[in-house]
Amino acid sequence: MIQRIQTLFLSAVTILLGIMLFVPFATVLYDDIIYLIKADSLVNAINNNEAEIMFWPMFILLIIMMLIPFATIFLFKKRLLQVRLCIFSSILDALFYVLFFYELSSILKLMPGAYVEYNYPLLALPLVCIILNIISIRKIMQDEILVKSYDRIR
């Protein structure tokens, strides 16, 4: 299990998505107040523990996005299921962008004239996770081809 390279890629996906739980995705400036958009809520940057708006769908999606690659690591004997789960994980990563921008548009309707600055976790980490999932799919398929060739030799 650990000696397979796709295990490292899937572990990296899990870690990167875990990082996304704790870092802000964007900063919103409205009426000289700075708000941070995090995975679960919109918080005031000055008193960081007060949640203004909660984003439960985005938070739950991020948890699911993190659990799928972690569970995929342990399905090393079911390679085709691993491929399907990696594809599903990549689709969820793309869906995260859609959900984030939907939530952001609902915030901007409440705060007309607000200035938004995106942070690197939002822009880079889901895209990197999609790339790592694609590499994992290729490596899993290489393993499947190798196993089938061994069966053919016997």
Write the layout of secondary structure elements.
Elements: H1 5-20, E1 26-30, E2 33-37, E3 41-44, E4 51-54, H2 56-73, H3 79-110, E5 115-118, H4 120-153
Antiparallel strand pairs: 1-2, 1-5, 2-3, 3-4
Helix pairs in contact: 1-2, 1-4, 2-3, 3-4
Global shape: elongated
Percentage of residues in helical conformation: 55-70%
Quickly give the structural class: alpha+beta
Summarize model confidence as the mean pLDDT: 85
Task: Output the strand order for the largest sheet.
Answer: 4-3-2-1-5
Distance between the termini: 24 Å
How many DSSP H or I helices? 4
Can you tell me the residue ranges where pLDDT is under 50 for at least 5 consecutive residues? none
Number of strands: 5
What is the element string, with H for helices and E for strands? HEEEEHHEH
Sketch the major β-sheet: 5 strands, antiparallel
Query: What is the rounded Rg?
Result: 19 Å
Strand content: 5-15%
